[in-house]
Amino acid sequence: MFFIGVASAVEVVKYEGLFERGTGAPIFETADFPADIGTGVLKVYNSAENDDYESVSSSKIMLNGADVLSPENFNQEVEYIEIEILLDKENSISVELNGKPGGAIRVEIIQTAISPITVTGKAIAGLPVVGTINIKDSSDPAKTSFSAIEADGSYTLYIDETWTPPFLIWAEGWVNNTHLRLLSTFDLDEGETEVTVNTTPITTAIVESAIGEAASEIDPESAPIPDPTTVEQIEAVVSETLQNLFAVIGVPENFDLFQTPIGEVGSPEDQIFDTIGVQSDEEGNIVFTDLEGESFTIDPDDPDPQEVPQDIIDNIVQTGGTLEQISQILSDFFALFNNPDNLPDKTKLEAELLPDLATGFLHRGEGSSDFIDRLALYGSQVAPAEYFVGCAIYRPMATQDYGTTTVEEMPDSHDSGLWILVTTNTNGKVMSWLTSFVDIDSDTDTELWKWYGNRQAVRRADPGRPRARQLLFPADAVTYHSGLHFWHNDIGNLALDMGITNLAIFNPAFAPEEINGVETNCVRLERREGGLDTRFRLSNVPHYWTNDCLYELSKEPGDRRIDLDVLKSQETMEFVVIGLDDDDNPVRTWLYTIPQAPHPVSELMADPGNYFATIEQDTISFQPYDDSDSANPDEFPGNDGLFSWTFPTNPELFPSWTRLGWNDQYWNWNELQVDNPAWYSPGNFYDFTSGTYQPDSTADLPRTASFAVTMRDTNLMHYQTDKRYDPWSEQFISVVNNQLIFDVTHAWSSENLNPDWASMYVRTRIRGKYLERFEVPITVESASVTGNAYVETEIRLAYQPYEDIGNGDTNFIGLYARIRYVGGQLRLQGFVWGSRNADGTDVINPAPSSGNYPHGKILAFGEPYTLAVEYFEATNQLMIEFDDGSTDAPYQSFYDMDSIIEFDSDNFIHAEIRTRVRSLQQDGDTGSMIVNVDNTKVDGMPYDDFTGGFANNKWDIQSNE
């Protein structure tokens, strides 16, 4: 099988020319020629090897404008010159001949033609690998290359005879929501220019055994390439052992594990990987395990290898039959929609699809009748954009423990069920999703499988999805977030009808919680109170409409954190969801799986162009409404907005949707969202690069707006770029000489300001962090007011119990240190403010319990001061601090919180720096202030010195009018 050898190289003349020295003054003669980019050889024959010509001297040759041979290289004694040169795709050579007339040179430019070697194969593990195929050779340093794996698992790699055999191949990617690294290896026959090499779990186990390490421990870029003879010996033993299995499932007898082409998904050689797992053990043995848990081991050194045990063959055959039935149901389902001109109506769906659905079918919160009704209405969104690729068994349906209560994943008394990972192809994008099947008659010889759905009781969901966000602000601020996101919204109240009002989500990444005396890794979500709002949300990715969606959890804040390090270390990232009623009784359970943990923020910051789209338009705005066309009053020609963007460099990402939202002059929120049409009809995902939006109603220049482009990969990882438009932030925040500058100026007028607001502020916030102390050096450069207005700058910590946020309650504590300019004086203030009631009444402004804070102290412009606020959990006290440098210790004032509101440090919402104009009451009221902020500190540690520009991934910008 293995031979070491290379193909031969061929020299190719890229240019040949004769240059003669005529009479008169020497001149440059120029010629153009194409070549391959890279090195070549310039050969110069003086006298052109022809007795009719004289030799030349003191001549010159230029290539692409640069001197390559100068006069000192030529004389009457030099007959031949050869030098290495660098060539472009298009080239120009210029020659100037000196000496007496009658001389000549012949010029040749030679390149060595590299014979290409084409490597083809498939990266497949039951279903195609979604990812990249990589190759390296045995040279030092090794040559490497890579290519994308096609939707059917096939790949093509190009090398040449300069590469040194043998070679190592590895596939990096995903199959059925599971990350895989598959290995393979090959050598070359003498003169061979085309070779087939597959990369599968079996080739991986053989290479692992030959190297002596597991693939998960092997770094392919630095790993040794296994000896070809060793690989051949192991392959021979494995092939001999598998012959009786191959015969039963129809694999050809001469099937070569490395080099025989693998057929389409569902072919006998492909089914091997659907029905059996393969890996090497610590001793270098190769272990095969069927889906019933039975295993057999191959010792590569065994001179007399055994056949595959019959019971394992029986299990494999049975599993293969199960997958064949399930595959047929799913392929028939997608086939119903493969002709967009002849989509099935409800009658046809009931006749052909309903028999395949099990009793108790539940899919995305829909029963069988709802499911068919939706398909009858929206079948055009199923195909031809999406078609079935294949499926694999994730695991059997089982039971889950909720404290001391056992909950069935099959609630309808079926005997057996399987969680199935379905792989589909949408316009060339391969992805997987989880569903289930049950055997409705396991007493018969032939199992009868029916589609059971994903068992989810919530109609609308954004299940367990890794997400990363890049927030762009007008003031050149960029903030990155990364985490996990769950969103359930039972719009049709199916879950509520079933009595589900709470969700429990289980995963080792959650902190332990006690349930009925049993400790388990779980978080609890409660639906929002009031009306029909049944939203559940769990996320550590802040969203544009609120700071952190973890607020809807009902347990203590310490249980809300998703430990991404723990999540990343898990081999299978499975989330079990149990729906609970008001009495905490389990009602239904379902599963989510995610293929990868979210990226760390440091990785996103280091290479944002790999993950995020670039929004090309700097501002988001609309022209005022033009009602001049009275004949068409429903048209708004002045309100078209054009937005364009470019994609990240990562070719595995593709655009999903865009969203534009804005607040009009009356603070009404408007939103337009457009999905990529390639999801629903044949097309190119990458054509979705711009859009023109027209609002449904009149919209003046928006006060604030947000434009978002969402990219996603085939594993449903979301990367979202949000461009904020905020004219006030853009105008009033900047960084100058590594200092944050607030330059707030505003004049009140009944024509341009809603009197109900009567103020304007701009602020930066720290959000998504738990902290206790916030310290800010502040210098007020100037301030002025007229009329009733006053201006102020402040820092604060804000707290609110999580159960109060979003529920209409405003239990809130804000701890402020404030400098205010009013009455011609710059004064220091500090206080605690809170409100018990949703209507804002019952304002709390307690007196300090201790300390010497100089409330009302007159300050000077241009002088540096330090303001700090801090919370002490041990004593449940808030503190305001002021340091003017005049004493050894800063001024401090403490407030006892026990009698005000119950909260702790985990109820922290945000820390912020804010400057604002207030009490604008009538025409002519104005206010302005310029404030410099330098090195901020959080919990005593430097947080931002603004040397990297504004925000530096740490701040959020917000303004209001």
Low-confidence stretches: 1-8, 544-559, 629-639
Main β-sheet description:
10 strands, antiparallel
The portion of residues assigned to helices is 10-25%
Number of helices: 10
User: Which structural class do the helices and strands define?
Assistant: mainly beta
> What is the end-to-end distance?
77 Å
Kindly state the number of beta strands: 61
Task: Give the radius of gyration.
Answer: 36 Å
Strand content: 35-45%
Question: Any idea what the shape is?
Answer: globular
Arithmetic mean pLDDT = 82
Fold and architecture overview:
This protein is mainly beta and 961 residues long. The chain is 11% helix and 43% strand. The strands form 14 sheets. Strands 44, 45, 47, 52, 54, 55, 56, 58, 59 and 60 form a ten-stranded antiparallel sheet that branches. The chain starts with 9 loop residues before the first strand and ends with a strand.
Features:
61 strands, globular, 961 residues, ten-stranded antiparallel sheet, eight-stranded antiparallel sheet, 10 helices, disordered N terminus, 11% helix, mainly beta
Helix and strand topology:
Elements: E1 10-20, E2 28-34, E3 38-46, E4 57-63, E5 66-69, E6 80-87, E7 90-98, E8 104-113, E9 116-122, E10 124-125, E11 127-128, E12 130-136, E13 144-148, E14 154-160, E15 167-175, E16 178-186, E17 194-196, H1 201-211, H2 228-249, H3 268-275, E18 276-280, E19 286-290, E20 295-298, H4 310-335, H5 346-352, E21 362-363, E22 366-367, H6 368-378, E23 386-396, E24 399-402, E25 405-408, E26 416-426, E27 429-439, E28 449-451, E29 460-472, E30 478-489, H7 494-497, E31 502-506, E32 512-515, E33 518-526, E34 535-539, H8 564-569, E35 573-580, E36 586-594, H9 601-606, E37 614-615, E38 641-646, E39 654-663, E40 669-675, E41 690-693, E42 704-712, E43 718-725, H10 727-732, E44 733-736, E45 739-747, E46 760-767, E47 773-786, E48 790-799, E49 812-822, E50 825-835, E51 843-844, E52 850-851, E53 858-859, E54 864-872, E55 877-883, E56 891-896, E57 908-918, E58 926-933, E59 936-938, E60 941-944, E61 956-960
Helix pairs in contact: 1-2, 3-4
